[in-house]
## 1
Amino acid sequence: MALIHGGDTEGYFEAYGKVPLDFSANCNPLGIPVGVAKAIAAAAAQADKYPDPLCRQLRAAISEKLGLPPSYILCGNGAADLIFRLALAKRPKTALVTAPTFAEYELALKTTGCVVAHHFLEESAGFRLDSSIIDRVTPALDILFICNPNNPTGLTVAPALLQELLDVTRQTGTLLVVDECFNGFLDAPESHSLKRKLKDYDNLLILDAFTKLYGMAGVRLGYCLSSNTNLLDAIKDAGQPWSVSSLAQAAGIAALRECDYVNTARVLIQTERADLTAALTALGLRVYGGEANYIFFYAPIPNLGALLRQRGVLIRDCGNYAGLAAGFWRVAVRTQSENEQLIGALGDVLKEATK
């Protein structure tokens, strides 16, 4: 079975009988917080009972953390679950996504027969979104997805452009969906978030998750935010009632208390991102930067992923992203020692390739 995302450590273990050093998935390198692991273990004693289908305690905790009404919050089995439920709830006829970007937007939309158009990000502009997208927003467009920071490039959208998109989509009646799942890794998260705009724009839906920032990929917990409660109700009704387990709900509540953990991770990412970017550039790779916890680059070695895999290192091949071709790669920013292992393996592969 072909997989389109990174993080397939189980497949590697089956093939090699050992655990790889995984740079293909962009999760917090600190691992799951101790407090979260303890909360999951404690919640297991109550796992004989059905979870709260409305996630009331979890939504209250998110509400307090974000300063938003609980009615603005809908929880799901990861952000991907909510993306597919959104497509089922809205059944849009036309959609626009940037390219490259996270594949699940298009996959979900196509399950409902939606016609999906691409707004290609130009390599000459460093794959950064610019104002040319404004002309693509018309009354005929039902839904627009923006990933901020974008996956796989790690680049943010200029706040002024985000505001312009908010205004034009409201005028055209287009639903603007902004994925902020990697926002927490930015140096200044608040300046790149639209959460404070929710009360003024009922055509805005924001996606976020515990997956990346809290190292909880295996827990499966995400949420979406909107002041349009009718939209949230429709998304809720498009999925099964117990989409968030009681263990995941307990984990989310505990995660929101992990302020020191988040601060430590943010400082680590800021330092290691700069060092890893410099090291990749020093190897002669074409680095496009990254403002979150991953770095996007080009390497003129088509089998780079396979060669690193043989050395126990997984990186994300971005050749299957719309708008990209073979040779584009993404690596997570991890701890100093892990990043040094990656650079060492990359250096060995590049030396052998140029012999």
## 2
Amino acid sequence: MNRVVFFSGGKGSFVVACHLKETYPNDNLILYFTDSLIEDQDLYRFLFEASDKLELPLLYHSANTTPIQLMAKQKILFNSRFGNCSKYLKMKVAQDYFKKDKEPVLHQWHNGQYLKNDLFKKAEDTILYFGIDFTEMRRVEPIKQNWSPYKVEFPLVDDVFDYDFYFQKYDIKRPRLYNLGFSHNNCSGKCFKAGVKHFKLLKDKLPKMFEELMCQERHLQIFVSSYHHIKKLDLDDEDKALLYKELDDCYMDYFDGKVNKPKLYIPPNVMYGSLENPSVKKYSFMKRKGQPYTLRDLKRDNNFTQMSLFNNDEIYDIGGCSNCLEK
């Protein structure tokens, strides 16, 4: 039997891998990781160390796109209420490979010598495993439906395991984000779908990372708003294409990580914060009630004085993306 563990770099999927290794020592067991390219460096240490000490093959995949690049491409700013990161950077990558036999841009093996056969993509001979526990029961049925006709199992939902036992047994350190108080080890704690409390923790524990993400969010906000402003202009497609190119030239190198600061782009027929000319629309990013909380809001509002704008779940949520392919 082939058994594939969706190995996210989290403690749950690690415990599942340990359990399967000990329960089915003669089966073809594979660790499968999809990379968002903004992971914490200690996550990679943990992935490869677990593969080494468990003596299991690790299959690494990536669309070679970061969540920041994906937002720029889709002209959408993800937030706690909406995000496509896991859908396109994890789920689509995995399903294209398993269901359509389509390799992603980045495809490589670690400890490939432990692979017992290469027939693990055949649904009739393979079981997929996810490291979610009983606190995430709501995700069980959607995952099963998404992965039909594969058989899918959730050992941490069906039984209780001592996580510390497995970390000690295989002499592996927990990923550092757990020690800092984060509830998961995905995306360096920079998940745009996380709640306010999660980002307060990021601000307190990893301030440089928080500042970097805050700047990226702000520039994405300007980029996306500028794009939709151009889209509404009364111009032909050729003129709009020229404006889109000007906008991309200002920001895409920044979103691709090639420069530290983008050029400022001011859309046509717009004046920032100026009401001198009544015929010119004021270009503003002022928050309206019901809009998602931004990191700039959090930096200015350490005591959550704007709590009335948000529901309690969003304010006190310390988790990350609740719709991720794996955790």
